[in-house]
## 1
Amino acid sequence: MGLPVLIIHATGTNRDAEAARACELAGASPHIVHVNQLRAGTRQFSDFAMLVLPGGFSYGDALGAGVRQALDIHVFFHDELTNFIESGKPVLGICNGFQTLVKAGLLPGPTCADRHRDEEAPSTERRAVTLTHNKQNRFECRWVYLAVEQGAKADCLAQVEGLVFCPVAHGEGNFQVSNEKTLRQLESEGLVAFRYVDADGLPAGGRYPLNPNGSAGDIAGICNRAGNVIGLMPHPEDHVVPIQNPLGGNEGLGLSLFRAMIEFASS
Amino acid sequence: MVFRIEVSSRSGKDEPTITAAAHRLGIHSLHSCRKSRLYFLTNHPEKALGSDEIDKLCAFLLVDPVTETARVTVENRPQSPAVAAQPSCDSPDHVVEVALRPGVTDVAARELERGAEELGIHRLEAATATQFRLTGKLSRAELHSLARGLLCNDTIERYNLGAIEPIFGHSSESSDLVEQVSLTGLGEEELLECSRQRSLSLDAREMKEIQSFYDEIGRDPTDVELETLAQTWSEHCVHKTFKSTISLTQRSTGGELLPTQEIQGLLRTFIMAATEKVNRPWVRSAFVDDAGIIEFDDQFDLAFKVETHNHPSALEPFGGANTGIGGVVRDIIAVSARPIACTDVLCFGPQDLPPGELPAGVLHPARVEEGVVAGIGDYGNKLGLPTVNGAVIYDSGYLGNPLVFCGAVGLLPKDAHPTEPQPGDRIVVLGGRTGRDGIHGATFSSAELTQATHMESGSAVQIGDPITEKGLIELVEAARDARLYNAITDCGAGGLSSAVGEMGEKLGADIELKDVPLKYPGLTPWEIWLSEAQERMVLAVPEANLPRLQELAELWDVEMRDLGSFSRDGWLRVRYGGRAVAELPMAFLHDGLPLPHRTADYNAHQPQQPSLQTALNREHAPPRAKEILLQMLGHPTVASKERIVRTYDHEVRGGTLIRPFVGPHMDGPADAAVLKPIGTWNNDRAFALSVGINPLLGKRDHYAMAVSAVDEAFRNAVAVGADPDRIALLDNFCWGNPTLPDRLGALVMTCQGCHDAAVAYNAPFISGKDSLYNEFDGQPIPGTLLISAIGIVPDMHSLCTSHLKEPGNLLYLLGETQDDLGGSLLGSLLGWKGGDPPKMPEAPLKRYRALHTAIRAGLVQSCHDLSEGGLAVALAEMCLGGRLGASVDIFAAFGNDLTHAFVPLFSESNGRLLLEVAPEDLIRFEEALAGLPFAPLGTVTQTKMLTVQQDGQQLFELPLDEIEVAWKGSAAQ
């Protein structure tokens, strides 16, 4: 039995099966669990060593990507999830999962100061980053190159060798910040995890379609201050075996991200 | 008290597409347009909403603090802003607000109500709208035409110049009204008038049959019964044209009259007959279930279905295409399969049509395309299904009646699909609630469109709710694996009436309509029974399994309701609050329809046309090959569809091995998609999806169109690695009014072509659908046949793609090129109607088997099929995809037999593919294709140039970047 990984399925989640396959190939034991089972208490966060919030359109994203799932987290799982995160267990949010973590205020997460200032105020209100509509103003599906940010707080990412090559498939993946200061702060605190780059690993520099959605600073993924919560828009779970690579070859597997996080969870 | 919340972008983002579209409409004074979302909130009078609660809703659900601001006002007191109010920063000259009409699914409002519930704000009622803030000096008339032409679709939406009044949830009165409709003594005209008034789409013979049935049993029909009969007997549900006897009168090409032929049903004579003759053991189900089923591997089968949703898409492009995908996916769920992929083939009018030429009552083709593409993407993407294969055809013949073909594939374990409901089984409905939406969809699609349809048939059009359907997918899969049901079908056309009527055909059924969960009160019994509200499935469930099914339904958040049971007395009994509102023998419902006898004419005689040379000589400046090629590459039907295809997720489920675009820049056109289903990675099997369609050729010769469509779909599947002995076909006919002999004659010839090709290729038809009455104001669409193919790829490690791979490799042409320019793209560009249409290739299966052997042996580096535009277009596409050049001499392949260089370059003969072969594989390659017509053409080059010679004489040179600009519309990054 590998490491037990919790993959949450909310109504409208659709990349859970691929995330499970990626975890399996990386040596873990994934369990796809419906939000309703967690709410009913028949399955519990604490039974698992890692959490994946997979891609999809939770609740149809009818009020904005990830918004309703973020509310679920706030209303039903706030304490359990906070404990899970504070215990240092890894959490990975992909696409809709990333949007959910951002909108729930869990990524990049509150600063220490915030936590003590006002426990009651909804963390969403303090949010200084968001994922909004693509600059092209439409859903787009295409393969992109990702580079792990040097010095990211998520140490385990150092295990990811070379670039990750995998598809994006989203309409609201445009990472934006309240102001320039927020961006600098994310960078200086090591909270940027992935950036869009070209095939040689050089910055996309905002150029479409290398940066497929207009994200500020070419940011494709971020992490929290403790380094154990990671979110990204592209889909590493869709490139776990070389035959999925549209350009052929053995490089750029997204599987390496799952391996790195599962290894981190085991240690 | 009603709160109104306006949510706007902080950056004041413009909507340049709206401004540009307004300018195309001739409204040039619109400078800019900004969009805001509007939410209207109210709740139960006992407990008014407080500003705390509004704050909370804004923070958690409505406003993104980074990108948006909100302005909250209390209804009727706009001067007293409530909480979080911020003055609007821009001051538009005009405001137009648009909201959905009552009864149209408003998913955002529903999710808002559910979210509020989670936040402890109970019994909130929500409505949504969109605000457009316009700057520029616009007259009232211009504002109205902008609203109607661009901002609002009258069919499902309403608008106001200025603030719109919200309408919450329901508005109509409850009613259990059942009408008795007296038919006694009515003459033919009066019967027809009754059919027309109630939109029954029944003809005089059918109405008389119903009249005499009720005369016999001695009572009047209820409206529920009449509506049930009309739905069950509609063209859409029963396909009477394909089942009827047809007398065909033909004139030969020489103009002589041939003896009249009697055809005992098109479906039986041509389509099913081919499947029987071919008799492939791997066909699991053909023409019986909601989808065709073939064997995939030892454990799994594959289901495939293609549907059309043309009339709804003409009226409301987004909703029509949206629910088209929803409908075909439910056909897959209805064979107990897990949907795993979608396809789409679209036919539109010209995108650059000047607004002045737009007929009244028609949406502009650009608006139709935009809506349809968004509708397909929205539904497929949200279901998590990769949309991987398709085509887009542009022709002025589709102006008033676009075509939207939606396909879906599913995977199911062997023998997992139960099809025998038992007496006593409960009739269980799962999924979405029933509303007044979609009423008369079946009869509406069995009538022609006219200018007035737009106004009259609003209720036939719906917006989909993919997330409810996603729940159905999960729930039915779980119920199937637990073996909880004995039969399953979807609520498609005709709603519950057809689902229950069909499932209980051999048993009888007793159903209570008062138990049907409704979106809002006020539906009469016949409306509940007929409603085509989306996202519903009907199951026959043994009573003992109900608790287990209920548990699963709760887990997957799907609503479930027990409506009655199947009986054994052969009667359909529909009740409302216990009172019978319809009592019909199943035998009359299903077998009472008098099949029509139809007459068909076909005239194969063509007036004498000039030869190609004569036609070219008549041109002022005869066009040159290079110019024609560039024109072809830029022709909307041929040009890259990347702007459309990229808005579909083609990667989800992680099994897409050949995508719509291939090559180092991932922008060359693929011949077919190849998919590996999740859950089957323990073996190397995959499957291919491809299409064949050529309405242009149909304008010249319908038989040739059918043969060519089969060949195209088939060769595309083989080109990527499918086994030619494991390819199954689907036929979809979109045609005009079949009661007119000329339309029907062309349809007969097309079916004949389908039959002959299927037999020649040894490929069974496993499913199909016809959509008739595709006419606008009496003008038929070009008769259109879509052939979709699904083929097993034995080894996912030996696939082949279309882009050139390596300089120095050799290029070969497989197949004979003949003077087949009739109905070609070249003919259409030159306005020349001469030439012979393409024929069935000689022994086609033999060449495809040899090619497959060569591909599996790794002897083919790239492979691309020749279709519209022939060799020249195929070569250009291969070069572009691989970012490599090619140098070819057509003399080697064709000699000088052909009268004009345009023939080898642009002829559209069937059965041809271009192949790239590495020099070291040459001997083995030639051995593999021994005895087949193939010839060397030239080599792949490093220089980014396509060079074409004829016997050493250069015909043209075309740099890659010119190809790119022509095909992609602009040079890429």
## 2
Amino acid sequence: MSRWDRFLDTFFNLKVMAKYLPDILSGVVLTIELALAVVITGLLAGLILALIRSVGIRPINWLIIFVVDVFRSLPPLVVIVLVYFGLPSAGFAPSAFVSTWMSLALVLMAFAEEIFWAGITSTPKGQWEASRSTGLSFSQTLLSVILPQALRLTIAPLTNRTIAITKGTALGTVVALHEILGMASSAVSNSYNPSPLMMGAAAYIVLFLPVVVAARWIESRFAWKR
Amino acid sequence: MEEIVQAFFNREIATEALPIVLQGLLNTVLLSLLVVPLGLLGGLILALLAHSRSPFIRWPLMAWVDFFRAFPPLVLLILLFAGLPFAGLELGGFACVAIAFFLNTGAYYGEILRAGIESIPRGQVEAARSTGLSGLQAMIYIVLPQAVRNVLPDLLSNTLEVVKLTALGSVVAVPELLFQARQAQSVTYNATPIVMAAVIYFLVLWPVVRLLSRLENRALAVRG
């Protein structure tokens, strides 16, 4: 066997790949579910926090800022480990899926709140005053005048941040979640062959590369006006 | 309440675990001092290459950057750590972290620095060249200092992410803060060491987060 054949046989072994393909695919499904759950809940929670913050009740705002700062400064992996290994001592034992989902959603919430808030505050004060003087209520002004402009401003930075955090679904492996990386790693130790890992890597590229390319397009389309 | 304190803020266990956790903090600092310059170097190389006008360099470069933006860093790390030994190359956790960070964070730093370099008007380079500076000199003395200043908040924000990312080292047994805390946790059967690690991360990185928050708000307000 030539070197090249040996290389192929080791890293792209078709027999091993065929055997573990169903495992990897089930990992792909779980990763997609987890990613969607994280993106939807994280962004929604971030938006809600930003809206509450715009009401301007001091003690509540301090609390929001503190929570946001905590989840911006902690590495996501530390949050996951803390939730999965720590919370059971407090009498609440979330599954690996729930732990990873909760942790990543909290981290995304923190970053999203910060970006939404920056968008809201960047709208000139005159807009508030003009809307209020035409008879719109506070919430009408916020939701129909300020927010649409703020959202347009936040799309580019939000997309990048969301991708970076959603890639963190791979961290679930550390708490034995059966997503792509977890499935691939256990297949490698079972088959003593790295081919499943190559499949897993390919799966991540197939999943995330279109999103990254789309983000590039969004970035140029909705770029911050200079 | 008493149980919560015992499980998460246990003073005896905290005293016992403190030296282990502090050793982890020291290693995290050292690791960061290695991987941040390494990532910056990778980014600088990419940004300077992207400056070239040849499409044969630009397109592969864009593909390279997008590839690493799409690829989870943990997957890259595991690929190096668990995959390379099959090719007869056993690098150990530390070297794998260094390589993975060079590739992954280099791509992010590269995008930022490229944007910074592009923000400098071409006339500056032309003026520099016409006074007799070489292309390299113009880049080092004229373009880069201004470029870096223009994207400083983004560079700082990415550096924060890189420092947080060093926690991945725990997965390949690099004895950084999270790894040490988990060691202490598995010995004591108590979550206190992990809480300690989290508190340390927060205390060290909070000032950076505050600073960034102010810089970002100001940037958005100016642009809006």
